[in-house]
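Person: Please comment on this record:
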Amino acid sequence: MILNELQMDNRQLHEKLERTQFGDIVGSCPSMQEVYRTIAKIAPTDVSVLITGETGTGKEMIARELHNRSTRSGGPFIAINMGAIPETLLESELFGHVKGAFTGAVASREGRFQAADGGTLFLDEIGDLPMTLQVKLLRAIQERTVTRVGDTRPEKCDIRILAATHRDLTKDVADGRFREDLYYRINVVNLHLPPLRNRGDDILVIAKYLLQKFRAEFSSPVVDFSPDAAEVLRKYAWPGNVREMENRIKRAIVLADRSTLSAADLGVDPDAWVPIKPLAQAREDFTRQYIFQVLEKNNGNRTSAARDLGVDPRTIFRYLENKGDDESSS
C-alpha cells in the first residue's frame, strides 16, 4: 500500500514538473513565465543578452537554455567568470596568448573567444571586469576579432555574447565604474531573474525536484519533506537563492537516515524565516510606513502630507495616535 502511494506521488510530481519545466529550468511563476516567453523570442537570434539577478538565481542555466534553443546549439558553450580570475591573467584567458608573451607562457594558447568560435560565449559576472579590459572587450565584440597577448595578428571569432551580473550596472555606469558603450553593447535584451523568495509555489516545486535528483544520485531513502520542512522552505528568505537550496537539500539527503527530511535536517535558523502576515495587516503596515515617509518629506506638516496623499488630515492624525500608542506600550 505504501509503495503504491509513493509511486503515485512520484507520478504526480513528474507530471507537475513536466508542466512547470522550460527545458532544464524548473518553475512556472508569472515572472519566470515572462522570462521563458522572452527566451523563446530571442534564442534563435544573435542579439546580445544581459542576464541580471541576485547571486544563485540560475543565470548560467538561463544562458545555457538560450544557447540550446539557438541556431548555435551545435557549437560550443564557453563560460568564463570574470570575478574568479586575477586581473593579470584575465586578458590572456579571454583572448589567448602566444609563446613567450609573459613569464610562464611556455606555449601558445587560445582564449575563451577562440574556444567559443561558432557557438556562445557566456561572460559571467561581467560587472567585475576591470576598466582596463572593458575597452578591449568592447572592441572584440564590435569587430568580432581578437588579438592574443604578445601578438599583433587579429583572429576572427564568430560568437554570440551572453553576459550576466548580480550588480546594478546602470549605477556602475553612472558612477564611472562601467563603460556606458559596453553596457549598451551587451544589453540589447535584458533578462531579470527574480530571487527565490519571490517565486511563490515554485519554491516547493524546485525543492521537490532537487530532492528527487539527489535521492537518485545518492541512493537515499528520503522520499519527501515533513510538514515543518515544507513550512521552512516556504518561509525562509533564501539569501543564497537556488544555489543555497541545492546545497542544503543535498547535505540533508547525504546525512539522512529517515524517509522524510525535517526542518532541522535543512539547518535553517527559525529567526531567518520571512514572516507571512495576513493581507489586511500587511496593507495596514505599508500604509502606516508610507504615511510617515510622506510626513517626513513635509517636515511633519499634517495638512501638507494629507494633501499630497489625497486623504483627510484626520487620517494622518489617526496613524500618529496609533504610533503613540505603539511606542507607549513598548
